[in-house]
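Annex B. Sample input.
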Amino acid sequence: MSTYSRNCVVLAKTENGLIGGSGAVITVGANTGGALPTGAATVTTAGTGYPANRTIEVWFQGSGGVNAIGRITTSGAGAILTATVDDGGSGYNNASPAAMTIVATANGSYGVYTAPATTDAVLVGTDFKIDPEVITVDRDVYTGSMGGKQSIPGEAYVQISFTIELAGSGAAITEAAWNSILKAAGAVGVLTPGVKWDYTPITDQFPSLSMRIFRSGYVHVVRGCRVAKIDFDFSVSTLPTAVLTLIGIDNGRQVAVNQPTPNLTAWKTPVVITDANTGDLRFGGTYSNATGAFTGGTNYGSKGLKLTWDNSAKFRPFLGGSGVPITNREVTGSFVLDLPPADNVAFYNAFKANSTISLAFVIGSVSGSILKLWMPAIERNNPGDEDDDGLALASYSLRARPSAMGLNDEIRIITM
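Annex B, continued. Sample output.
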């Protein structure tokens, strides 16, 4: 039986597991239309043994086994101080306040394999590639003759690369289908109820993925998978896409006669980046976290935007804990603008002065399909001139910086 390249099904799920603490009970108000209300909840029992002095994204579970997503803050003694429900889920039938328990961290438990379902399918491009890598050790001994040395396989890992399309979920209160991949790059999602999802970088407790990759006749299993690099392309007259490089722990291949049928309903059709549905690049404006709106600043015509989210992530073998830690992060990119002469000079002077400026970008105009990017402080580097069939355009590279020391906010990805 042959294996066909088109017969490729990729399933990926955020790894989860119980966090260290126990005994907490969170009380949430009565349901509204079958969904628990979001916002502040009452900490009925603080519990013990949770990570100290942290804000942690968690999953709550209430009556009927329906999960809700939220956050907790903890004290220095590892007890829960406050709790918030960001998304109350659905399907609740209780008419009085519900007791919720913490069942897992949304960030997950690294390397603990969590079997993905067909609803965790990823819509991958035809450039999909998986490269198993094995750290081998040669036996360097005399054998009485010439010939190749014996190589003994040791720790094994996998590098995976593919392209995904970036589209909204179809509803502002629902995470886009690619949210688990963005989290595995080192981001956390926060819901503004009824308005938007915001994803910003984090510096610890990075999520990870368990993956099942089916070809006709076999399945390759990977765990502890993290995104080492994302190349975003938001160029004019293209679909918004991201080229991903992921690295994970090899869990081997198995025969799989029955390849599953992926459920790709969560993957919506993206909009082509055109002048009609995409805003200009906006420099120097402000962002409202409450509404997701950009205000102020100056808009410039452009050829779009390219960004690279580059994590220092590689496979590291350890006795008792091999994995793919993320040890650093840098967001860079480039843009080409049609600048009036005075602004061309101002941009160049800003480059020489190493001054920063905010950058905002919007794709789409219909609720549920809007994708926004916000960078509060970019450096403009490597100025150049680009001839575009007689037009003199200004090209720059960029480096995104946090708005202040100690903050993880150099890039914000928003779906509305």
